[in-house]
Every structure is written in C-alpha cells, then in structure tokens.
C-alpha cells in the first residue's frame, strides 16, 4: 500500500502538469479547420439525421460526433467548451498509460511513460484538438490498463470484464486506427494474461465486439469511401523515409531530446537485458504493426498514413523503451530516473519551444478579426473580402461569435484540378467597387498568383499576417499607403533574341511585342541556378507576361522546370485557360507563381519559358522572371539554402 501511495503521488503530479499544458490557451487559440468541420456536421435538426448525414459520409466512427452533439447543446460551441472533453480524455490517458506500464514493467517505467505522455508535443497537440484522437488514445490506454490487470496473478472479476469491454468498444467507436491498435492489443493480451483469467478475458473481448456491432453498417459505408488520399484527396502516399521521420517527430523533432530518451533506454537495456520477454515483444509489435499496416495500405490501396493516426500505438513504443528501467519499487532510483527524463521534456515544451496549437494548424479567428478591423477602420462600404476556406461556416463561426453580419462577402475554394478559379478571382477583383480588398485563406491550396491578380486593381499592401497554413492580407487602391508584399530577390526582363515581331500595340504597357505561331512555338528561355536566385525553400518563382489571344481556342502555357545534373527533377506548367478570359481580344496580364519542390538543392537549376501547345498565333510581351521572398513557415519551418 505504501508503494502504491508513493507511485500515485508522483503520478498525480505528472498528470496535473500534463493537464495544465493541455488546458493552456484552449480558450484563446483559433478553432481549426478540422474542429470546425466537426461542428459543421452537427448542424442537423435531429440526432438520427446527424448520424446519417454527419457521421456516415465522414471517415471516422461516431463517438466524437455523438459526444459533440450532446456536449455543445449543454455547454455551447466556444473554443474552450468544445475542447474541454478532449483535454480531459487526453489527460486521463497519462494516468492509465502509466498504470499499465507500471503493472507490466515497474514504477520507473510507469512514471517515465507518464512523463512522455504528459510532456511530449505529440500527445499534447492531439489532446487539445476536438477530434477523435484524444478519445482514441484514452480508450486504447484504458484497454491497456485492463489487459495489465488481467495479467496479474489475482483472479479477475466483473470490473475487469466490463472495463475492458467498454474500453475496447470505445476505441473502436473513436478511430479506426485505435480500433486496429486495440484489436492487436487484444490479441497480444491473450499471451499476456494469466491462465486463471483467460476465460474472463475472452468474455470481455467478445463483449467489446458485440458492443461495436450497431456501428457495423456505418463502418462498411465509410470504408467504401476510402481514405484521405487518392483521387480528389489531399494526402499522398508515404515514402520510405516516413519511419525515421515519424520516430524523430515523436520526440518533438528534437535530436537532443531523442538522444536523452534513447540514452536512458540503452542504459536500462544494458543492465537489465535478461528481463527481456514476451511483454517487450508485445510492445514492439503493438507499435510497429499499425505503422507497417498503414504504410503498405497507403502504398497499395489508398493513402491514410500520417503522424496523427499513429498516436494510439505510440505509447507502446514509450513503454518498450522504458521497460528495462529499474524494476524494484523500493529503490529510490525507480523514481529518480523518471524525474531526470521528465526535466528535459518539460523544459522543451515550456521554455525552449512553448507549444501553441496554431503553430501546427491553420488559423481562422485572426483572419476574421483582420477583416472586421478593416471594416471598422475604413468603413463597411469601402471594404470587400474574399475568404478561401472549405465552407462558409468556417468564417461564419467567428462572424457569429463577434455578432458581425456583413452585407456580403465572397467565399471560394481553390481546387487545383479546376480550370476557372483564377478567372473567377480576377472577375471578382475587377468587379469590386471598394477601396480596400481583404483576402484570407486557411487550410486550403492558395495559389501564390492570387496575390498578383488582386494587386492588379489593389496594388498597395496595407496589412500582411502569415502563419502556418494560413494568411490574411489587406490591399488598397493606388491612392492608399504603399508597401511591398514580397521582397524581390532576383529580377530580369526577358527579351526574345529571335522570333516574329508583333506590331500590335500592348494596351497595358504600350511596348513592342512578339508573337508565337506555327513556326515559333516557344518563347525565350530563362535558366538560372537555384542558389543564385532563392534564399529559402519557401521563396517563390514568378513568371509574368502580357498575352493577347486571337481566338477562343488559343492557349499559352508558362513552364517552370527544376533541373538536377541535366535531368528534369520537376516539370510544372500553368495554362492561360485557367486564368485568362478566352473571349477577350484585349491584352491580359498572365501570372504564374510557383513554390519550389521541398527537395531542391542550391546547385539545381530553374528553367522558365512560355509556349503555345496548339501552335496558334498569340501575342506576347513584357516577359519577366522574378524570384521573391515567400510565406515563411507556410508548411513548417525550413532552413535557408546554404
């Protein structure tokens, strides 16, 4: 009893600290697109309608939507109210994960596991997010706790049977990867539980399956939809370096923190190797098999593998690494090891790089606030706005919260496979009668050229706010205060050395021009070295031209190629049909702005040119090739080119 009290005393302190880290900023951080999409799927008149139209078309089991359905009716849909139950479940995961590790491997392992669950960024992030991850982690750790209880020598009773049945069913109702991980845990448990408890364990496992049967029709429907990758999806298949990247990601992508954890794991393994047995093998399989399954499923069927879906199996890796720590609970070192490992984790997440949820997810709150502030400053009639988000409700969530009811606002979703979106953007901008134009986007593909199209009519930048996977800009007409959107790194006017001169006057610049035709399919070529024109992988490559089409069938393509050692690394092209008005016979400005591929090296080359794919006669001129400062940290911080 004394040992239990001492262990629980330490565990209470770690769990409380983990709770404070999770509850921190939950009331002030912007709601994320993932969270607001869940709230959007609650907007039905009845519970049954929500199940059919809010759960069934989604890719996740019903638990999170059902929880939010009842929770928001009781406590509202503020950021804090929505996130609180997930914070509580994420916190409870610390307790049950530590208790399971203690029963299997001793107090030192239990407390070290608690420290990792409490203070690593990976579980903190997904314990703040109002999505299925915290429930899945909670039920998986609860199931692990009851499997550990079945592994004890004493005879199990109805509490263990009911506990494991509810935990297993809860994991299955939360997320399909938590279902899979708990299924593997159930199989592993058949080798870990004592002989006296196997019958009780079998009854508990069967009960968990029976409890999930009402969801089977939903599961079959959701599985037929596929994953978040493939045609129309946003997730690509993983590469072979995912395994190493994920292991590094678990430890906050910090080499120092990873070394500390592996050092203690290696010391424990060195002195206690003889303790290696089936429990360590089970932990290894429970971590490895879900990752391998997700990897090969993503390669051969449909991409689903990302860091978040491995949250449920990650605690078993932690338990494995700490399974060789001192087992004797009477030894003070059983507690000192955990405290020593806890210090760098806690220092990293609080002092070195304090965790903020919106450093990892696109913002919505700040985008709407910038728009509201612009209207209050300049007047409602003088400000137009365009939001590039997934649905109106993504911005309506905050417009309603701030009781701001604009007369009208424009909303769009950019999909790279469509051909008319930049045309629509150009039309919206040109039709605006306002003096100021606000453009905000979050968690969507935002064409870099959108900024150039807006600046055709609103050339001056008043405000610029850029964050991870989101940004908002306030533009003004020529008479407003002028500011540059991006700092130019490299600039060159491109003049053809040969070609057919066009006598047609360029109404945009009043300069002489050339034309493409059946004998001159390609325009002039620009070739530069990456290290000479780009400072950072987030910098942008811009190609501009004035174009005059002579028929609706005319097409011109801007091409940017990235070359390594004489071989094409990447070919990208942008057709005029996606941006220009094919019915116009006036000169039009044609923009192509491209983000370089992430694997680009300073020694690589960039080539850019325009051409006419159907050999039609097209006027062109005022060609420019520009590189400019990009949106730093748009998809994560990346070091400058050296």
Labels describing this entry:
5-stranded mixed β-sheet; 642 residues; 6-stranded antiparallel β-sheet; single chain; alpha+beta; elongated
Summarize the topology:
Elements: H1 2-23, H2 33-40, H3 47-55, H4 63-75, H5 79-105, H6 107-119, H7 121-128, H8 133-150, H9 158-174, H10 176-192, H11 198-212, H12 216-225, H13 242-250, H14 255-272, H15 278-300, H16 314-321, H17 333-352, H18 365-378, E1 383-388, H19 392-401, E2 410-412, H20 421-431, E3 436-442, H21 449-455, E4 460-467, E5 470-476, E6 488-494, E7 500-502, E8 513-516, E9 526-529, H22 530-533, E10 540-548, E11 557-564, E12 567-575, E13 588-594, E14 605-611, E15 618-628
Parallel strand pairs: 1-2, 1-3
Antiparallel strand pairs: 3-5, 4-5, 6-15, 7-8, 8-15, 9-14, 10-13, 10-15, 11-12, 11-14
Overall pLDDT score: 89
Which class do the helix and strand fractions yield?
Answer: alpha+beta
- Beta fraction: 15-25%
Number of strands: 15
Largest sheet: 6 strands, antiparallel
Summarize the structure.
By secondary structure, the protein is an alpha+beta fold. It has 22 helices and 15 strands.
Describe the protein in words.
The chain is of the alpha+beta class and 642 residues long. The chain contains 22 helices and 15 strands. It has helices at 2-23, 33-40, 47-55, 63-75, 79-105, 107-119, 121-128, 133-150, 158-174, 176-192, 198-212, 216-225, 242-250, 255-272, 278-300, 314-321, 333-352, 365-378, 392-401, 421-431, 449-455, 530-533; strands spanning 383-388, 410-412, 436-442, 460-467, 470-476, 488-494, 500-502, 513-516, 526-529, 540-548, 557-564, 567-575, 588-594, 605-611, 618-628. The strands form 3 sheets. Strands 6, 7, 8, 10, 13 and 15 form a 6-stranded antiparallel beta sheet that branches. Strands 2-1-3-5-4 form a 5-stranded mixed beta sheet, with helices on both faces. Strands 9-14-11-12 form a 4-stranded antiparallel beta sheet. Helix 1 (2-23) packs across helix 7 and helix 8 (133-150) packs parallel to helix 10. The longest helix is centred in the N-terminal third of the chain and has 27 residues, at 79-105. The protein is elongated.
């Amino acid at each position: 009893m004394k040992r239990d009290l001492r262990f629980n005393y330490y565990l209470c302190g770690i769990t409380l600290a983990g709770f404070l880290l999770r509850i921190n900023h939950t009331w002030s951080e912007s709601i994320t697109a993932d969270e607001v999409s869940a709230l959007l799927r609650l907007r039905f008149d009845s519970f049954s309608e929500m199940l059919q139209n809010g759960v069934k078309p989604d890719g996740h089991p019903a638990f999170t939507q059902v929880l939010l359905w009842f929770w928001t009716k009781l406590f509202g849909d503020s950021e804090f109210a929505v996130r609180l139950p997930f914070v509580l479940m994420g916190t409870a995961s610390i307790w049950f994960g530590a208790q399971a590790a203690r029963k299997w491997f001793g107090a030192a392992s239990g407390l070290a596991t608690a420290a990792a669950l409490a203070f690593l960024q990976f579980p903190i992030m997904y314990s703040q997010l109002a999505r299925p991850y915290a429930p899945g982690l909670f039920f998986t750790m609860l199931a692990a706790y009851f499997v550990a209880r079945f592994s004890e020598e004493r005879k199990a009773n109805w509490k263990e049977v009911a506990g494991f049945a509810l935990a297993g069913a809860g994991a299955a109702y939360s997320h399909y990867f938590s279902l899979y991980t708990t299924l593997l845990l159930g199989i592993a448990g058949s080798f870990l539980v004592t002989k006296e408890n196997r019958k009780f364990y079998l009854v508990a496992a069967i009960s968990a399956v029976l409890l999930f049967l009402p969801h089977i029709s939903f599961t079959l429907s959701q599985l037929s939809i596929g994953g978040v990758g493939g045609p129309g999806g946003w997730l690509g298949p993983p590469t072979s370096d995912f395994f190493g990247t994920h292991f590094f990601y678990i430890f906050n992508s910090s080499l120092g923190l990873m070394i500390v954890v592996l050092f203690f794991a290696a010391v424990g393994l060195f002195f206690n190797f003889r303790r290696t047995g089936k429990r360590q093998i089970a932990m290894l399989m429970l971590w490895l098999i879900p990752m391998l399954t997700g990897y090969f499923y993503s390669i051969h069927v449909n991409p689903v593998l990302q860091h978040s879906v491995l949250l449920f199996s990650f605690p078993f890796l932690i338990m494995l690494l700490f399974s060789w720590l001192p087992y004797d609970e009477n030894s003070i070192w059983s507690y000192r090891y955990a405290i020593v490992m806890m210090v760098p984790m806690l220092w990293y997440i609080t002092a070195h790089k304090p965790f903020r949820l919106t450093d990892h997810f696109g913002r919505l709150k700040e985008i709407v606030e910038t728009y509201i502030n612009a209207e209050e400053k300049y007047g409602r009639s003088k400000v137009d706005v365009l939001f590039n988000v997934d649905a109106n409700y993504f911005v309506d969530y905050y417009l309603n919260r701030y009781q701001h009811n604009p007369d009208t606002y424009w909303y769009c979703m950019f999909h790279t496979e469509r051909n008319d979106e930049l045309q629509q953007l150009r039309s919206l901008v040109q039709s605006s009668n306002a003096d100021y134009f606000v453009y905000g986007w979050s968690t969507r593909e935002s064409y870099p050229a959108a900024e150039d199209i807006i600046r055709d009519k609103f050339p001056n930048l008043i405000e610029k706010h850029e964050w991870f996977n989101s940004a908002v800009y306030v533009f003004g007409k020529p008479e407003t205060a002028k500011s540059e959107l991006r700092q130019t790194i490299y600039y060159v006017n491109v003049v053809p050395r040969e070609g057919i001169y066009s006598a047609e006057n360029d109404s945009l610049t009043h300069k002489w021009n050339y034309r493409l035709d059946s004998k001159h399919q390609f325009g002039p070529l620009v070739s530069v070295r990456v290290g000479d024109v780009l400072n950072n992988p987030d910098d942008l490559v811009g190609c501009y031209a004035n174009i005059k089409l002579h028929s609706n069938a005319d097409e011109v393509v801007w091409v940017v190629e990235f070359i390594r050692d004489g071989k094409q690394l990447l070919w990208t092209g942008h057709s005029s049909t996606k941006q220009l008005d094919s019915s116009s016979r006036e000169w039009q400005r044609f923009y192509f702005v491209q983000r370089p591929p992430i694997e680009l090296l300073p020694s690589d080359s960039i080539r850019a040119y325009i051409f006419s794919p159907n050999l039609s006669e097209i006027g062109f001129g005022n060609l420019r090739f520009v590189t400019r400062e990009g949106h730093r940290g748009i998809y994560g911080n990346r070091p400058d080119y050296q």
